[in-house]
Amino acid sequence: METRESSISRLEVILFLVLLSVLAILIIPNHRRHHHHGGHGGTRQCMATARGIVVSIRTYSLSWDGWTHPDPDYYVKLAGWPLKHEDRYSPSLIDRNRDFSCPVDQDPGLNNQGYRSSYDVMPAFRGTNIGAINTPERILAVKERVPHHSLPKDGGLAAVHAYADGTASLGIKPELLPKRIRD
Fold first, then answer.
1. Run of H or E including 96
2. What angle do CA 81, 61, 143 make, to 5 degrees?
3. Which of 25, 50, 132, 155 is the most buried (most CB within 10 A)?
4. Domain count, the chain
5. Residue 73, in any domain of the structure
6. Domain of 62?
């Protein structure tokens, strides 16, 4: 009688890979959903969106000798979306566009151009010559309308702030606060 050596057959390897694939299919979407709708992933994506608005406005200003557009919501045009008064605009675009919404913001309001947006462009960044700004790291350019993000230390909520130099912070930069509040 022959004895069979203990080895892994092809069928066992295939079954193992199928089982591993099924587990991956079940686990990965939940992992992505967690990072998309909260935690650090949602905050990072929100900061990236706010910074993207700043970069698009700065890029526009390069073509106009440093001047920004006076419409605070003109950034939607810079991102390739039609403005509310243009022929290509349709109210159906409102639900199709989430480009200007923080992933944590479940109900972003409409901006003046008719798109959902979680952000406001600050007065210092509309219709002004930003080419003349000497300290862009100190100029608040874009601010999230409603605070949605948890602060690591005290658990309170903060809004994303993006500055003229392209940086972003959760809440206002500590160095911009008056000394008595900072300490």
1. helix 93-96
2. 70
3. 50
4. 1
5. yes
6. 10-182
